[in-house]
Amino acid sequence: MKRKRYTPEFKSQIVLEVLKEEKTMSEIASSHGIHVNQIRQWRNAFLEQMPQLFAKENKKVDQMKADYEQQIENLYAEVGRLTTQLSWLKKKSGLKE
């Protein structure tokens, strides 16, 4: 007998259904043709991993902030270089500011 493979999206749907508590786990299992123990495993895996999802999200935000600040710093440095070059070119060409 071939094993059934479920997509992460499908598993998420089932876990959300369980967490809503509108139906029992047995009702959800029979309506989707999945064993109750499988649904229990998916729910437990979700509950165990949920705190790490938020930690990853915070790390991404912190990384985005750091990247943004670095980009701003680089842009200010570029503006400084270009201003200096413009002043030098004006001075060399004899143009008045």
Features:
97 residues; mainly alpha; 3 helices; rod-shaped; DNA binding; Transposase IS3/IS911 family protein; WH-like_DNA-bd_sf; coiled coil
Kindly describe this structure:
- This protein has helices at 8-20, 25-32, 36-93.
- The radius of gyration is 29 Å and the shape is rod-shaped.
- The chain starts with 7 loop residues before the first helix and ends with a helix.
- The chain is mostly helical and 97 residues long.
- The mean pLDDT is 90.
- Helix 1 crosses helix 3 (36-93).
- Helices cover 81% and strands 0% of the residues.
- The longest helix is centred in the middle third of the chain and has 58 residues, at 36-93.
- It has one domain.
- Residues 54-85 form a coiled coil.
- Keywords: Coiled coil.
- InterPro entries: Homeodomain-like_sf, Transposase_8, WH-like_DNA-bd_sf.
- This is Transposase IS3/IS911 family protein.
- Gyration radius, to the nearest Å? 29 Å
What is the SS-derived class?
mainly alpha
How many H/I helices? 3
Fraction of residues in H or I helices: over 70%
Low-confidence stretches: none
InterPro entries: Homeodomain-like_sf, Transposase_8, WH-like_DNA-bd_sf
Keywords: Coiled coil
GO molecular function, one term: transposase activity
Protein name: Transposase IS3/IS911 family protein
Short description:
This protein has helices at 8-20, 25-32, 36-93. The protein is an all-alpha fold. α1 (8-20) crosses α3 (36-93).
